[in-house]
Amino acid sequence: MPLTPAKIQHIQRQVIHWQASHGRHDLPWQHNVSAYRVHVSEIMLQQTQVTTVIPYFERWMQDFPSLSALAAASEDDVMAHWQGLGYYSRARNLRKAAAHLADEHNGEYPNDLKALNAIPGVGQYTAGAIRSFAFNDYGPIVDGNVKRLYARLFAIDGEPNSSAFNKIMWQYANSLTPEASGAFSQGVLDLGATVCKKSQPLCQACPLQSDCLALKQQRIAELPNPKKRKIKPVKDAHFVWHTDSADQLLLIKRPSPGIWGGLWCLPQHDEVPANSELVGEFTHQFTHYTLNAQVWRAAADQVNEGLVENGKRMAEFRLQSVHELSAVGLPTPIRHFIENVIALRQPTNN
Ligand code: SF4
Measured in angstroms, how far is the CA atom of residue 196 from the centroid of ligand 1? Predict the structure, then answer.
Protein backbone atom coordinates (compact mmCIF):
# COMPACT_ATOMS: atom_id res chain seq x y z
CA MET A 1 0.00 0.00 0.00
CA PRO A 2 1.65 3.29 -1.02
CA LEU A 3 1.71 5.83 1.79
CA THR A 4 0.70 9.37 0.91
CA PRO A 5 2.62 12.26 2.52
CA ALA A 6 -0.58 13.16 4.41
CA LYS A 7 -0.90 9.60 5.77
CA ILE A 8 2.76 9.53 6.79
CA GLN A 9 2.42 12.85 8.60
CA HIS A 10 -0.75 11.70 10.34
CA ILE A 11 0.88 8.45 11.61
CA GLN A 12 4.00 10.34 12.74
CA ARG A 13 1.89 12.85 14.70
CA GLN A 14 -0.25 10.15 16.32
CA VAL A 15 2.79 8.13 17.41
CA ILE A 16 4.78 11.12 18.70
CA HIS A 17 1.79 12.56 20.56
CA TRP A 18 1.01 9.19 22.16
CA GLN A 19 4.67 8.64 23.12
CA ALA A 20 4.83 11.97 24.95
CA SER A 21 2.01 11.05 27.33
CA HIS A 22 1.95 7.22 27.35
CA GLY A 23 5.39 6.03 26.27
CA ARG A 24 8.35 4.99 28.39
CA HIS A 25 10.54 7.82 29.67
CA ASP A 26 12.23 6.38 32.73
CA LEU A 27 14.48 3.66 31.44
CA PRO A 28 18.07 4.19 32.68
CA TRP A 29 19.46 4.74 29.15
CA GLN A 30 16.86 7.48 28.55
CA HIS A 31 18.69 9.64 31.12
CA ASN A 32 22.06 11.30 30.47
CA VAL A 33 21.60 10.18 26.89
CA SER A 34 24.78 9.55 24.91
CA ALA A 35 25.58 7.44 21.88
CA TYR A 36 27.62 5.13 24.11
CA ARG A 37 24.73 4.57 26.56
CA VAL A 38 22.28 3.99 23.69
CA HIS A 39 24.70 1.60 22.00
CA VAL A 40 25.33 -0.49 25.15
CA SER A 41 21.62 -0.62 26.06
CA GLU A 42 20.56 -1.62 22.55
CA ILE A 43 23.13 -4.42 22.40
CA MET A 44 22.03 -5.68 25.84
CA LEU A 45 18.35 -5.50 24.80
CA GLN A 46 18.89 -7.80 21.81
CA GLN A 47 17.18 -11.10 22.77
CA THR A 48 16.84 -9.92 26.39
CA GLN A 49 13.95 -8.42 28.38
CA VAL A 50 14.11 -4.82 29.64
CA THR A 51 13.75 -5.87 33.30
CA THR A 52 16.69 -8.28 32.98
CA VAL A 53 18.86 -5.68 31.25
CA ILE A 54 18.43 -2.80 33.75
CA PRO A 55 20.74 -4.09 36.55
CA TYR A 56 23.35 -5.23 33.99
CA PHE A 57 23.25 -1.83 32.32
CA GLU A 58 23.67 0.01 35.60
CA ARG A 59 26.60 -2.13 36.71
CA TRP A 60 28.23 -1.77 33.29
CA MET A 61 27.94 2.04 33.35
CA GLN A 62 29.31 2.17 36.87
CA ASP A 63 32.42 0.19 35.91
CA PHE A 64 32.81 1.21 32.24
CA PRO A 65 31.29 4.71 32.15
CA SER A 66 32.82 5.67 28.79
CA LEU A 67 34.10 4.20 25.55
CA SER A 68 37.68 4.77 26.71
CA ALA A 69 37.00 2.93 30.00
CA LEU A 70 35.60 0.02 28.00
CA ALA A 71 38.55 0.03 25.59
CA ALA A 72 40.94 -0.14 28.58
CA ALA A 73 39.08 -3.01 30.32
CA SER A 74 40.40 -6.59 30.15
CA GLU A 75 38.41 -9.21 28.25
CA ASP A 76 37.91 -11.16 31.51
CA ASP A 77 36.46 -8.12 33.24
CA VAL A 78 34.10 -7.39 30.34
CA MET A 79 32.94 -11.01 30.13
CA ALA A 80 32.35 -11.13 33.90
CA HIS A 81 30.02 -8.12 33.53
CA TRP A 82 28.05 -9.93 30.83
CA GLN A 83 27.77 -13.20 32.70
CA GLY A 84 24.16 -14.39 32.70
CA LEU A 85 23.01 -12.27 29.75
CA GLY A 86 23.93 -14.93 27.18
CA TYR A 87 24.95 -14.43 23.53
CA TYR A 88 28.46 -13.49 24.65
CA SER A 89 29.59 -12.38 21.21
CA ARG A 90 27.66 -9.19 22.03
CA ALA A 91 30.11 -8.37 24.85
CA ARG A 92 33.15 -9.18 22.72
CA ASN A 93 31.77 -6.98 19.96
CA LEU A 94 31.26 -4.07 22.36
CA ARG A 95 34.96 -4.25 23.24
CA LYS A 96 35.86 -4.42 19.55
CA ALA A 97 33.52 -1.49 18.89
CA ALA A 98 35.37 0.63 21.47
CA ALA A 99 38.68 -0.15 19.75
CA HIS A 100 37.19 0.50 16.28
CA LEU A 101 35.78 3.89 17.33
CA ALA A 102 39.13 4.86 18.92
CA ASP A 103 41.02 3.90 15.72
CA GLU A 104 38.59 5.17 13.10
CA HIS A 105 36.67 8.03 14.72
CA ASN A 106 38.89 9.48 17.49
CA GLY A 107 36.85 7.72 20.15
CA GLU A 108 33.59 9.42 19.06
CA TYR A 109 30.44 8.01 17.51
CA PRO A 110 29.89 9.12 13.89
CA ASN A 111 26.49 10.67 13.18
CA ASP A 112 26.06 8.70 9.97
CA LEU A 113 24.05 5.52 9.40
CA LYS A 114 26.63 3.87 7.14
CA ALA A 115 29.55 4.58 9.48
CA LEU A 116 27.49 3.43 12.50
CA ASN A 117 26.61 0.24 10.63
CA ALA A 118 30.34 -0.44 10.15
CA ILE A 119 30.96 -0.64 13.94
CA PRO A 120 31.54 -4.28 15.00
CA GLY A 121 28.27 -5.82 16.25
CA VAL A 122 26.13 -2.90 15.03
CA GLY A 123 23.48 -3.84 12.49
CA GLN A 124 20.86 -1.81 10.69
CA TYR A 125 18.56 -1.66 13.74
CA THR A 126 21.24 -0.54 16.23
CA ALA A 127 22.65 2.03 13.80
CA GLY A 128 19.12 3.48 13.44
CA ALA A 129 18.59 3.44 17.20
CA ILE A 130 21.88 5.27 17.94
CA ARG A 131 21.13 7.92 15.32
CA SER A 132 17.56 8.30 16.51
CA PHE A 133 18.04 8.33 20.27
CA ALA A 134 21.52 9.84 20.65
CA PHE A 135 21.46 12.39 17.80
CA ASN A 136 17.69 12.79 17.22
CA ASP A 137 18.38 12.53 13.49
CA TYR A 138 16.89 10.25 10.84
CA GLY A 139 17.30 6.67 12.10
CA PRO A 140 14.71 4.11 10.94
CA ILE A 141 14.33 1.04 13.16
CA VAL A 142 12.64 -2.34 12.84
CA ASP A 143 12.69 -4.93 15.63
CA GLY A 144 10.29 -7.77 16.45
CA ASN A 145 7.78 -5.45 18.14
CA VAL A 146 7.85 -2.89 15.33
CA LYS A 147 7.37 -5.70 12.79
CA ARG A 148 4.24 -6.83 14.60
CA LEU A 149 2.91 -3.27 14.71
CA TYR A 150 3.49 -2.59 11.00
CA ALA A 151 2.27 -6.06 9.91
CA ARG A 152 -1.06 -5.34 11.61
CA LEU A 153 -1.30 -1.65 10.82
CA PHE A 154 -0.83 -2.28 7.09
CA ALA A 155 -2.21 -5.90 7.04
CA ILE A 156 0.96 -7.43 5.59
CA ASP A 157 1.17 -11.19 5.14
CA GLY A 158 4.44 -13.10 4.89
CA GLU A 159 6.83 -15.31 6.83
CA PRO A 160 8.13 -12.89 9.50
CA ASN A 161 11.74 -14.10 9.23
CA SER A 162 11.93 -14.06 5.45
CA SER A 163 14.07 -11.48 3.69
CA ALA A 164 11.10 -10.46 1.52
CA PHE A 165 9.01 -9.63 4.61
CA ASN A 166 11.93 -7.82 6.30
CA LYS A 167 12.48 -5.76 3.17
CA ILE A 168 8.85 -4.60 3.23
CA MET A 169 9.10 -3.74 6.95
CA TRP A 170 12.22 -1.63 6.34
CA GLN A 171 10.52 0.13 3.42
CA TYR A 172 7.70 1.16 5.75
CA ALA A 173 10.18 2.22 8.45
CA ASN A 174 12.22 4.25 5.94
CA SER A 175 9.07 6.04 4.72
CA LEU A 176 7.45 6.64 8.10
CA THR A 177 10.51 7.82 10.05
CA PRO A 178 10.76 11.61 10.32
CA GLU A 179 14.03 13.56 10.00
CA ALA A 180 14.19 14.19 13.76
CA SER A 181 13.23 10.67 14.73
CA GLY A 182 13.93 10.23 18.47
CA ALA A 183 10.33 10.48 19.73
CA PHE A 184 8.85 8.60 16.77
CA SER A 185 11.31 5.69 17.08
CA GLN A 186 10.71 5.47 20.82
CA GLY A 187 6.96 5.66 20.09
CA VAL A 188 6.87 2.69 17.69
CA LEU A 189 9.03 0.63 20.05
CA ASP A 190 6.75 1.47 22.99
CA LEU A 191 3.56 0.88 21.02
CA GLY A 192 4.80 -2.51 19.83
CA ALA A 193 5.94 -3.52 23.31
CA THR A 194 3.05 -2.24 25.43
CA VAL A 195 -0.06 -1.78 23.21
CA CYS A 196 0.18 -3.85 20.04
CA LYS A 197 1.13 -6.89 22.10
CA LYS A 198 1.41 -10.37 20.65
CA SER A 199 -1.75 -11.62 22.30
CA GLN A 200 -4.67 -9.42 23.26
CA PRO A 201 -3.39 -6.10 21.89
CA LEU A 202 -4.91 -3.05 23.58
CA CYS A 203 -6.56 -1.63 20.45
CA GLN A 204 -8.84 0.65 22.45
CA ALA A 205 -5.76 2.46 23.76
CA CYS A 206 -3.97 2.52 20.41
CA PRO A 207 -3.46 5.90 18.72
CA LEU A 208 -3.49 4.15 15.32
CA GLN A 209 -6.76 2.26 15.66
CA SER A 210 -8.58 4.32 13.00
CA ASP A 211 -5.73 3.54 10.55
CA CYS A 212 -5.29 -0.13 11.41
CA LEU A 213 -6.16 -2.48 8.55
CA ALA A 214 -5.90 -5.64 10.67
CA LEU A 215 -8.50 -4.17 13.05
CA LYS A 216 -10.73 -3.16 10.17
CA GLN A 217 -10.42 -6.57 8.51
CA GLN A 218 -10.66 -8.47 11.82
CA ARG A 219 -7.33 -10.17 11.12
CA ILE A 220 -5.41 -9.25 14.27
CA ALA A 221 -5.06 -12.86 15.45
CA GLU A 222 -3.53 -13.98 12.15
CA LEU A 223 -1.10 -11.06 11.70
CA PRO A 224 1.81 -11.22 11.69
CA ASN A 225 1.66 -14.72 10.13
CA PRO A 226 3.12 -17.48 12.34
CA LYS A 227 6.81 -18.26 11.94
CA LYS A 228 7.72 -21.58 10.35
CA ARG A 229 8.78 -24.01 13.06
CA LYS A 230 12.26 -25.48 12.70
CA ILE A 231 13.30 -28.69 14.40
CA LYS A 232 16.42 -27.98 16.42
CA PRO A 233 19.34 -30.42 16.12
CA VAL A 234 20.75 -31.95 19.31
CA LYS A 235 24.51 -31.90 20.01
CA ASP A 236 26.28 -33.98 22.65
CA ALA A 237 29.18 -32.56 24.66
CA HIS A 238 31.45 -33.97 27.36
CA PHE A 239 32.93 -31.76 30.05
CA VAL A 240 35.59 -32.68 32.57
CA TRP A 241 35.42 -32.11 36.31
CA HIS A 242 38.80 -32.09 38.01
CA THR A 243 39.56 -30.62 41.43
CA ASP A 244 42.88 -30.51 43.28
CA SER A 245 43.42 -31.25 46.96
CA ALA A 246 42.44 -27.65 47.89
CA ASP A 247 39.03 -28.08 46.19
CA GLN A 248 40.01 -25.87 43.29
CA LEU A 249 38.30 -26.67 40.02
CA LEU A 250 40.20 -26.73 36.74
CA LEU A 251 38.77 -24.20 34.26
CA ILE A 252 39.90 -23.36 30.75
CA LYS A 253 39.29 -20.22 28.76
CA ARG A 254 37.02 -20.92 25.77
CA PRO A 255 38.52 -19.92 22.43
CA SER A 256 37.12 -16.83 20.80
CA PRO A 257 35.24 -16.64 18.46
CA GLY A 258 33.02 -19.62 19.27
CA ILE A 259 30.30 -20.67 21.69
CA TRP A 260 30.98 -19.06 25.08
CA GLY A 261 34.22 -17.64 23.61
CA GLY A 262 36.29 -15.70 26.16
CA LEU A 263 34.47 -17.25 29.13
CA TRP A 264 35.97 -19.67 31.64
CA CYS A 265 34.52 -23.18 31.47
CA LEU A 266 35.03 -26.82 32.41
CA PRO A 267 37.35 -28.38 29.80
CA GLN A 268 35.37 -29.90 26.93
CA HIS A 269 36.34 -33.21 25.32
CA ASP A 270 35.11 -34.84 22.12
CA GLU A 271 34.62 -38.17 23.87
CA VAL A 272 34.10 -39.58 27.35
CA PRO A 273 37.52 -39.32 29.09
CA ALA A 274 39.09 -42.68 30.02
CA ASN A 275 38.72 -43.91 33.63
CA SER A 276 36.16 -41.27 34.46
CA GLU A 277 32.89 -41.35 36.35
CA LEU A 278 29.73 -39.38 35.62
CA VAL A 279 29.21 -36.34 37.87
CA GLY A 280 25.93 -35.30 36.24
CA GLU A 281 24.17 -34.09 33.12
CA PHE A 282 22.44 -30.94 31.93
CA THR A 283 20.67 -29.66 28.85
CA HIS A 284 20.92 -26.15 27.45
CA GLN A 285 18.89 -24.56 24.65
CA PHE A 286 20.88 -22.46 22.21
CA THR A 287 19.01 -20.58 19.48
CA HIS A 288 20.00 -23.07 16.79
CA TYR A 289 20.50 -26.32 18.71
CA THR A 290 20.02 -28.17 21.97
CA LEU A 291 23.15 -29.04 23.93
CA ASN A 292 23.09 -32.34 25.83
CA ALA A 293 26.01 -32.20 28.22
CA GLN A 294 27.58 -34.85 30.42
CA VAL A 295 30.18 -33.94 33.03
CA TRP A 296 32.86 -36.50 33.95
CA ARG A 297 35.15 -36.61 36.97
CA ALA A 298 38.63 -37.37 35.68
CA ALA A 299 42.19 -37.53 36.92
CA ALA A 300 44.71 -34.84 35.95
CA ASP A 301 46.37 -36.92 33.23
CA GLN A 302 43.03 -37.44 31.47
CA VAL A 303 42.29 -33.73 31.64
CA ASN A 304 45.70 -32.97 30.17
CA GLU A 305 45.03 -35.27 27.25
CA GLY A 306 42.24 -32.98 26.10
CA LEU A 307 44.23 -29.80 26.61
CA VAL A 308 47.59 -30.76 25.17
CA GLU A 309 48.25 -31.42 21.51
CA ASN A 310 51.72 -32.42 20.21
CA GLY A 311 53.14 -31.54 23.61
CA LYS A 312 51.72 -28.01 23.44
CA ARG A 313 49.08 -26.72 25.84
CA MET A 314 46.13 -25.59 23.73
CA ALA A 315 44.14 -23.58 26.24
CA GLU A 316 44.69 -20.97 28.92
CA PHE A 317 43.68 -22.55 32.24
CA ARG A 318 43.25 -21.71 35.91
CA LEU A 319 42.44 -23.44 39.18
CA GLN A 320 39.47 -21.72 40.79
CA SER A 321 38.04 -22.30 44.25
CA VAL A 322 34.53 -23.72 43.86
CA HIS A 323 33.46 -21.29 46.61
CA GLU A 324 34.63 -18.21 44.72
CA LEU A 325 33.08 -18.69 41.31
CA SER A 326 31.71 -15.15 41.13
CA ALA A 327 35.28 -13.96 40.48
CA VAL A 328 35.24 -15.42 36.96
CA GLY A 329 32.95 -15.13 33.92
CA LEU A 330 31.35 -18.56 33.43
CA PRO A 331 28.56 -19.56 31.02
CA THR A 332 25.30 -19.63 33.03
CA PRO A 333 24.48 -23.36 32.53
CA ILE A 334 28.03 -24.32 33.58
CA ARG A 335 27.79 -22.08 36.65
CA HIS A 336 24.42 -23.56 37.60
CA PHE A 337 25.73 -27.07 37.14
CA ILE A 338 28.79 -26.44 39.35
CA GLU A 339 26.67 -24.71 42.01
CA ASN A 340 24.20 -27.62 42.03
CA VAL A 341 26.99 -30.17 42.47
CA ILE A 342 28.49 -28.13 45.33
CA ALA A 343 25.07 -27.62 46.99
CA LEU A 344 24.26 -31.34 46.79
CA ARG A 345 27.48 -32.40 48.45
CA GLN A 346 27.27 -29.83 51.32
CA PRO A 347 25.35 -32.07 53.80
CA THR A 348 27.96 -34.83 53.64
CA ASN A 349 30.80 -32.33 54.19
CA ASN A 350 29.24 -30.65 57.22
S1 SF4 B 1 -5.28 -1.07 16.52
FE2 SF4 B 1 -4.68 -2.87 17.65
S3 SF4 B 1 -3.77 -4.28 16.16
FE4 SF4 B 1 -3.91 -2.25 15.20
S5 SF4 B 1 -1.90 -1.35 15.55
FE6 SF4 B 1 -3.21 -0.68 17.23
S7 SF4 B 1 -2.94 -2.21 18.87
FE8 SF4 B 1 -2.11 -3.06 16.97
Answer: 5
Please tell me if the CB atom of residue 206 comes closer than 6 angstroms to any atom of ligand 1: yes
Cβ 152 under 6 angstroms from ligand 1: yes
- How does pLDDT run along the chain (350 residues), one tens digit per residue? 579 999 999 999 999 999 999 999 999 999 999 999 999 999 999 989 999 999 999 999 999 999 999 999 998 899 999 988 988 889 999 999 999 999 999 999 999 999 999 999 999 999 999 999 999 999 999 999 999 999 999 999 999 989 999 999 999 999 999 999 999 999 999 999 999 999 999 999 999 999 999 999 999 999 999 888 878 899 999 999 998 888 899 999 988 878 898 899 998 888 888 888 899 999 999 888 999 999 999 887 666 665 655 566 667 888 899 888 888 889 999 999 998 888 887 654 44
3-state secondary structure of 111: coil
Topology annotation, domain 5-222: Endonuclease III; domain 1 (1.10.340)
In the residue annotation, 277 being an active-site residue is answered as no
Is this model's pTM higher than 0.85 or not?
no
* Alpha-carbon gap, residue 191 to 327, rounded angstroms: 40
Distance 186 CA to ligand 1 centre (A): 17
DSSP 231: P
Q: What is the domain partition of the chain in residue ranges?
A: 5-222, 234-349
Whether 179 and 138 have beta carbons less than 8 Å apart is answered as yes
Q: Does domain 234-349 have CATH number 3.30.360.10?
A: no
